[in-house]
Amino acid sequence: MPDEEILQGGVANAGAVVRVGGDVLRPSSPHTPTLHALLRHLRARGFEGAPEPVGVDPDGRERLRFVPGDVAVLPFPAWVQTDRALASTAALIRRLHDASVGFVPPPGGGWSDELADPLGGDVVCHNDVCPENVVFRDGEAVALLDFDFAAPGRRVHDLAAFARMCVPLDTEEDAARTGRAGLDPFARLRVVADAYGLPPGRAALLDAIAESIAQGGAFVARRVAAGEPGFVEMWNALGGRARHDRRRAWFAEHRDRLAEAIG
To answer: Structure pTM?
Structure first.
């Protein structure tokens, strides 16, 4: 059997995602049949910005075609912090949402509810678009990875989670922890809204961001409480509960200015 090359990055599946030749093997889940059906639907609709599913191996791991390109890991390098990288990722999310319309899960298929939009919606959201889950070529986003937390939802729900993690919406101190000191979150949130093509009435995005901050913090806290090593390490490295509280306070303090920035 060909050698397995461990692919770096990720938290939940850290060290368990490997490349074998032109394929990637990663842990499957009860939702894998639904997710593979989704990926096939997206490709049939002309969206090639996601891995092509192959199937599930006898050992239980899912097999996907490898997507060539660059993936950023902590501390995030300068090339993934450009407005071009941010805008192209937002545009890629828009194309994902548009292509997902009309998808019907297979009989008995289900979704993860851990990061799902509690209000549901008419598109399929990725729900975890962070730098580690985006493939870039020449500084432009070309594909999204790791659909484990995908689920139906509203467009602004997915866009809010992306903005929270990739603008990022954080204090300057906490942004610096990930190598992203000196970025302008107000201008960058406008880049996200414009590149996605968010229509007027953008206050809904701010509401969704407030919800996303609470949901994201609760999600990580649950994984930490369960003792999952990758989440414990990330939680401690990035400042723990105090970091989450700082983010929530920062957003509340700057919400009006963010609203003005996105128009």
So the answer is: 0.95
